[in-house]
Amino acid sequence: MDDLTVMTESVPGCRWILKGLEELVEWARMRFKPAKSRSMVLRKGKVVDKFRFNIADTAIPSISEKPVKSLGKVFDCSLRDTTSIQSTCTELDGWLKSVDKSGLPGKFKAWVYHMAFFPGFCGPSLSMRSLSQQLRP
Questions:
Q1: Which residues, 6 or more positions from 18, have their beta carbon under 8 angstroms from its beta carbon?
Q2: Which of 20, 36, 82, 93 has its Cα between 20 and 30 A from that of 53?
Q3: DSSP codes of every residue in 47-69
């Protein structure tokens, strides 16, 4: 198992599923790593830090305590992607400036842009932009 997402309608239901999953994983002689896991409880569209989940008597950090980065996007308690888009743009701007100042000839710069930047930023940048932003001319 690499990634696992548990979604339930209630906090007790999630605790029950986590307990069952913990027993199954112990039976398979594996274990979860609570420090690498994250929890998020939504109530009326807002993140609530009132509830804590545990695995093997170790608390799972919430998404507001430790934001997680997945596929180039940072997930935090704001549930907005504006900060992630801004950080990606500033990171790309820094990389482009460093390649521009490197002194490489034009064809090598084009190769670096094509082979390094385009594949790395095409996926995350398209997934971070909303559909309306992607369809604008």
A1: 6, 53, 54, 55
A2: 82
A3: EE-S---EETTEEPPBTTTS-EE
Helices 82-100/118-128 angle, 10° precision? 160
Residue at 10: amino acid letter: S
Tokens coding 79: 């549930």
Residue count (the chain): 137
Domain ranges of the chain: 11-66, 70-135
The residue to which tokens 């090598």 are assigned? 108
Q: Name the 3-class secondary structure at 130.
A: coil
DSSP-derived 3-state class of residue 19? helix
Gap between the Cα atoms of 49 and 22, Å rounded: 23
